[in-house]
Structures are given as C-alpha cells and as structure tokens.
Design goal:
Cofactor: FAD
Oligomer: single chain
Number of helices: 17
Number of strands: 22
Shape: globular
Pathway: Cofactor biosynthesis; ubiquinone biosynthesis
Radius of gyration: 24 Å
Organism: Ceratitis capitata
Family: Belongs to the UbiH/COQ6 family.
Largest sheet: 11 strands, mixed
Enzyme class: oxidoreductase
Helix content: 25-40%
Length: about 475
C-alpha cells in the first residue's frame, strides 16, 4: 500500500507500507516443494549450520566474525553471494567512489577479526575534525578528535573493506569452516517455521538444495529472507537521490576534515581521501541529481564549489535571532567558521547516484532466521551511519549465537535471537529516528523550522556535554 501525504513546507512524502501475507510469501517455495518429495530433498541436501544470504560488506563481515569466534569455530558456515567472485583491491588504482565513514565500534570489529591492519597498510584516511553548517542561517557545529578516544571517523573504500575480509576468508588454515559461493542465487526458501522441523531449506537457481539451522538475511533492502519471514516493513521514499563522486582538490593540504553543509535541497558532504583527493556525497532532488550526472566536469566542479561557498538568502527573523544568541553566549561565528578546500576537477567516470529512503523491519528475527544490515534497516547517508549500524548488528548477533552455542541451544532458537533483536533495536532505533528527524528538519526553508534548527545546532555546539553525548552515541 502506498500513501502520498504533504507535510507543511516539506513537499510530498510517500509512505510505503509493505505487508506480505504468508500465502504470498510462500507461493514460490510452495510451488517448488509441492512438486518435489520432501524426504528426498532432505536426504540429498547439503547441510550447513548457518547460511548467510548476501555477501556485501555486512554479510561478509558476519561470516568472518562467526568463524573467528572460538565458541562457533566448529560451525559450518556458508556465504551465498549472487555476484561473480570479488576481483580484489589494488592500491595502485584510482580511489573508488563507494566509501564509508567508519566509526569507533566498526574499527573495533575489524580489529577483532584481523582485518583492520590490512586496511591500514593500504589506505585509510583518519578524520580529525568535522564541521557541519546550515546554508540558510550559518549555524554550525564542529567536532574534533579531542571529543573521542580516537578519530572522529575513518574514511575507507568499500572495496578495500571487502578485500580485507576476503583475505581473512582465504586463509583456510585458520578459517576452514567457512565457504563462499558466488553466482549463487536463491530460487526458493522455506524457513524452519514453515517446514515444521529444525532446518530451513534453500533451493538455488542452479538446482542445488541446501539446509541450515539458521538463515541470515544480509541481502539488502529488498531482502528475500525478510519477505519469507513475513515481516512488516515501514519505509519512506524521500524522493531524493545521493550523488557520489571523487574530486581533485585545488591545492594539496593536510585534508583531515570532513565537511557537510545543509543546502535548501539537501546536504552536501566532502570527505577526505588523501592530500589531494576527496569524496563527495551530495543529496538532492531527483531532477538535480540527473543534471549533476550529465553536466560536463567543469560545470560539476563549479556547482560543487558553489554548494559550499555560495551565500544563500537568509530570513531576517532567523538572522536577528542568531545574532542575539551569539551575543548572549559570547560567540563570534566568523572566527569559528572554517571553509573547505576548493575543488578543481572531478575524476572521470567517478560520478554515480542512488535513491534515498528510510526502511525499518518490524522485527529482526523469527525462529530459525535473523536479519542484519539493510535487510533490517536503511537510513539517509547524511550522518554516515548506515553501514555502521550493520556492523553493530554483526557484533551483537555473534555474541548471542556464541551464548546459544555455549549453552548447547540451537542456533535458530528464537529465545536467543530475540536477545539480538533487543540489543540491536536499543542501538539502532535512536540513531535512525535522529537521522530521519534531521532529514525532515533540513528539508524545508519554512522560517519557524529554520529558526528552531539553527538555534538548536548552535546551542548544541556551545554546550560540550551535550555535543559529546551525541557524538559518542553516533560515532562509537
């Protein structure tokens, strides 16, 4: 069911409610299994303790983390990936346009599975400071590494993270219990709650049949595993797209600051990669995103510099209120504000775009199955939290499964899986609600909203305890 509403000053917002009935969710599986003798399927099926559907960043991290856990080291794990084998990462090649801002918790996960040193030896950019400001009011907030135990964040290419994890999986002496199968697509799936026994059944498009005690859905926002679990999904189509690109800076510099400016059409971020290169994540309207992708490199560069340096019209009420606040707290915004480095070129073929939206599953688990990453939740990239929430899922799920194995319980025991859901929800929901709220607040130029958000941003920056609490929750 799709509902179109119009919020004051926000334009149309499409709310999509997805509910898959059990009969519809099982139609494909029922058709397949109705034509096949069940006992014959079980006898000929290859069995695994855990099957992970989806070999992206989060699914691959889970496979490595499970294998590295001493309590789970005797469990047979299969990672199913629909894409061809990963081609690897070459540090001599150009920076990729798919990068992530990794927080402290994610770094600790990578350290625990032996992948962090591998990344550090190649190219990881440590962010020492972040500045966020509003184009409609010039309200700003700054974060420095002094607010954290380590860096504000680390910028890492997605392909490098995958390469580091696949390097771990390739070490069969230390990880003999994990198998990766590429070009492996699921045609039909019956979970243990459907089969009536302790095993889920997976039928692949190549004709092979597999069984497992626990099925993990790491297969993205359109998760087949989630549909088979018959779980309701709440989603919001932001009707925006994110444009990514790799850009060349005008002058070489230390380039250890992440910049984000909220424009009337959405936020634009400049993330450091090296002394001369940065990554762009620009959230904007669908029409404008198409223009940014199609325009010549010189025009794109000009538009990007304008996005960071252009003076936008400001409402007099907001300006007067901000001046009064700054006077009361003894703050001179002109002294505090810094400006990002200018961009003089965009790397050829580095521009791409993706749709923006919000998604959250009503539950992450059922008996014999669990969801992680984008299969369970999806957020706007404005705070860089998407993949970090997925890595947090990995940490919590591995802990719960280790507890279940240690106690002699089944890995698919819902009593234990519920603990994973509760812990992940406690971490994910506040961040997701906060990010969605920020998107809503900064998607309008309505004067009262601009006034409130500007005063709130400025006050948060002024009071260190509030700012530190916010960043510790968001960054690790």
């Amino acid at each position: 069911m799709s509902v179109l509403i119009k919020a004051s000053g926000l334009g149309p917002v499409r709310l999509v409610f997805k509910q898959l009935s059990a009969s519809r969710a099982l139609s494909l599986s029922t058709k397949y299994y109705a034509e096949t003798d069940t006992s014959k399927q079980k006898s000929s099926a290859e069995h695994f303790d855990i099957i992970i559907g989806g070999g992206g960043l989060v699914g691959t991290a889970l496979a490595v983390a499970l294998a590295k856990n001493k309590v789970l080291s005797d469990k047979r794990i299969l990672l199913l990936e629909g894409a061809p084998p990963f081609r690897g990462f070459n540090v001599e090649t150009q920076y990729g346009n798919r990068v992530s801002a990794i927080n402290g918790n994610s770094v600790e996960l990578f350290k625990s599975i032996g992948a962090w040193d591998y990344m550090q030896e190649r190219r990881v950019k440590h962010v020492k400071q972040m500045q966020v400001w509003d184009a409609c009011s010039d309200a700003l907030i700054k974060f420095q590494d002094e607010h954290f135990a380590a860096d504000v964040a680390c910028i890492v290419e997605n392909d490098l993270m995958l390469d580091a994890m696949y390097a771990q999986l390739a070490d069969k002496n230390n990880m003999p219990n994990v198998e990766v199968r590429n070009n492996a697509r699921i045609e039909a799936l019956r979970l243990s709650v459907d089969t009536g026994d302790n095993y889920s059944q997976v039928h692949l498009k190549d004709g092979k049949t597999l069984t497992c005690e626990l099925m993990i859905g790491a297969d993205g926002a359109n998760s087949l595993v989630r549909k088979q679990m018959n779980i309701d999904v709440f989603s919001v189509d932001y009707e925006r797209r994110g444009v990514v690109a790799t850009v060349q800076l005008e002058d070489a510099c230390d380039n250890a600051v992440a910049w984000q400016r909220f424009l009337p059409t959405g936020p634009v971020a400049l993330l450091p990669l090296s002394e001369t290169l940065s990554s762009v994540v620009w959230s904007t309207t669908i029409a404008h995103a198409k223009e940014l992708l199609d325009m010549p490199a010189t025009d794109f560069t000009k538009a990007l510099n304008e996005a960071f340096f252009k003076e936008y019209p400001k409402d007099g009420v907001v300006v007067n209120a901000m001046n009064t606040l700054n006077s009361l707290i003894g703050r001179d915004p002109n002294i505090l504000r810094q400006y990002p480095p200018a961009v003089n070129d965009v790397i050829d073929k580095s521009r791409a775009s993706f749709p923006l939206g919000f998604l959250h599953a009503s539950s992450y688990v059922c008996s014999g199955a669990a969801l992680i990453g984008d299969a369970a939740h999806r957020v706007h990239p404005l705070a860089g939290q998407g993949v970090n929430l997925g890595f947090s899922d990995v940490r919590e799920l591995v802990k719960v499964l280790a507890d279940a194995a240690y106690a002699g319980a089944r890995l698919g025991d819902k009593h234990y899986l519920i603990k994973y859901e509760q812990r992940s929800l406690a971490k994910n929901v506040p961040i997701m609600v906060g990010v969605h709220g920020l998107h809503t607040l900064y998607s309008t130029t309505f004067t009262p909203v601009v006034l409130l958000r500007s005063l709130g941003l400025q006050l948060t920056d002024t009071f260190s305890p509030i700012k530190n609490l916010f960043m510790k929750r968001a960054m690790g």
